[in-house]
Design a protein that fits this description.
Layout (H helix, E strand, L loop, with lengths): L1 E15 L2 E9 L2 E3 L6 E13 L1 E6 L3 E2 L2 E2 L2 H13 L2 E6 L17 E4 L4 E3 L9 E3 L4 H11 L3 E5 L1 E4 L4 E4 L3 H13 L3 E6 L5 H6 L4 E4 L8 H7 L2 E3 L2 H4 L2 H8 L4 H12 L1 H10 L19 H10 L4 H6 L3 H6 L13 E4 L15 E4 L2 E2 L2
Parallel strand pairs: 1-4, 5-8, 8-9, 10-11, 12-15, 15-16, 16-17
Antiparallel strand pairs: 1-2, 2-3, 4-18, 6-7, 13-14, 18-19, 19-20
Amino acid sequence: MSERMVLRVKGRVLAGPDDVRDELWAVDGRITYERPAGVRDEQVVHGWALPGLVDTHCHVGLDRHGPVDEATSEKQALTDREAGTLLIRDAGSPSDTRWIDDRDDLPKIIRAGRHIARTRRYIRNYAHEIEPGDLVAYVAREARRGDGWVKLVGDWLDRETGDLGACWPRGEVEAAIAQAHRLGARVTAHCFAEDSLRDLVEAGIDCIEHATGLTEDTIPLFAERGVAIVPTLVNIATFPHLADGGEAKFPRWSARMRELHARRYDTVRAAYDAGIPVFVGTDAGGSLAHGLVADEVAELVKAGIPAIEALSATAWGARQWLGRPVLEEGAPADLVVYDEDPRADVRVLAAPQRIILNGRIVG
């Protein structure tokens, strides 16, 4: 008989929103639903199992001042892991975090390369800051550097107008998105306000981060084109504080930020009701702490998204959107186990009982 250890998860395995199994096994880091033969011993975990959670907007290797060292990046990734996040779409980072790919105890990362922003129109030390004529070339560069995504900064504070303003002319953004698609990459963009959304969507963009500027005019367009949004409501909660800090110098911008914050839940619910794909993202790694995925799921529910759909936005649906497997036969055994059913109360996500990555208990 084999001496190898096998991990067995018993109780309720939530393989899909409507697919509940009684147990699974992790053998050599892979999932199977068939009892493995020739096993001498197995370690058993009891509870409710979900696919490893997904944070679709997270920044490993970045803090409020810019790139960080490997020790800090490791701490960020471990914090996310302990919260149950086992897959991250890193939505822009100036740090090279490829070394994480060699660690089987850290979350898997899908990178979008480095942010691409307009000159003096984003946070210092974060992005390539360029003019529109260089946009296509930089998008091609980051499409090759990333893992199938490119991140644009679609709008930011325009110091001349004292308000949020779109960063890119329509023609340049159309050419840039087309170039990314030719190279096999999808494109997403940071957008707070209304002004840039129509041009970006009609230019073929695949996703919008934050999307606080959605209105009854642009929501149908997003739905028709299938453009996803990642609301990052735990980040939008900081808008009043940001507005207070900018009041003296940029009162128009401060008023806009407060307005966007005030209607944030209505905006997200209207988007969901229209059929726009909504996914969980925390925007961790800039000014926000890591490990907030459970808080973001709870915020989506507070906005009016049904609990099962909010769970899907960080589990089955998010993984499928990113092209990664869920709890299917032969998939990597990346899952989180809870004492109670998270479908009944998403607040359960804040207290993982066991975290299993590549078939090993890591937390």
